[in-house]
Design goal:
Tetracycline Repressor, domain 2; 2 domains; 62% helix; mainly alpha
């Protein structure tokens, strides 16, 4: 006797899918990024993962760029608060370093962060903490407001640069070529490079990152912002 195939269940008999939420969509996006890379975090791939249509996702996120910004904001939640001990500059540097390290761990996200504009609670918390530390150091409000942007740009660009190098097959060869070019520069044609060649390559990545933050903090602290265009400079 021939077995009959099982009768397909009606839509009413199937288990109900969980309701879509922005939080659930971002959670799925983070999981896809960790497993497959940020390039796979698209509306189409997410819709497949969540068993829905791409159009359903646009109710919660307007574009892939907004999705990537939301993923970045979610991962900012893993960046702990500033340490309780140390000077305000030391605590601020520690927080920025933690942000940079988080981006190091997600190379594609580091590059996307150069143009992503997160606006979620974790990004706001990071900016709030940075502003509070700058205020603690006596940095004028306008300089602190502009300075936060510069500090985050430095951290993000550093992470993106290292992420790009880490994924490039010719990184070591390029570095060796640069080292030779600087070392062999003629003092007749490139006197400054010939004199400073070793210093141009000196320092560990951590030392250079730290120096960059401290240099920027010194500049932010001592460089007034310009007056608005409709107001004369004092």
């Amino acid at each position: 006797m021939t077995d009959h195939p099982a009768t397909p269940k009606s839509r009413r008999e199937r288990p109900a899918k969980p309701a879509l939420t922005r939080e659930g969509i971002v959670t799925a996006a983070v999981e896809i990024m960790r497993a497959e890379g940020l390039q796979k975090v698209t509306m189409r791939r997410l819709a497949q993962e969540l068993d829905t249509g791409p159009a359903s996702l646009y109710v919660y996120l307007a574009s892939t760029d907004e999705l990537h910004a939301a993923v970045l904001d979610r991962l900012l939640g893993t960046v702990g608060p500033a340490p309780a001990e140390g000077t305000w500059r030391e605590r601020l540097e520690a927080l920025l370093t933690a942000y940079t390290v988080m981006l190091f761990e997600h190379p594609a996200l580091a590059r996307a962060a150069l143009v992503a504009r997160p606006s979620g609670e974790h990004y706001l918390r990071l900016v709030e903490t940075l502003l509070a530390l700058l205020a603690e150091g006596g940095v004028p409000a306008a300089q602190a407001a502009w300075g936060v942007d510069v500090l985050l740009q430095h951290a993000t660009a550093t992470a993106a640069e290292h992420a790009t190098r880490a994924q490039s097959a010719g990184t070591e060869a390029d570095w060796n070529a640069l080292t030779r070019a600087l070392r062999d520069a003629s003092p007749d044609t490139h006197p400054q490079i010939a004199a400073l060649g070793p210093l141009l390559l000196a320092g560990t990545p951590q030392q250079r990152l730290s120096w960059g933050f401290q240099m920027l903090l010194t500049g932010i602290t001592h460089t007034p912002t310009p007056a608005p265009a409709d107001e004369p400079l004092a």
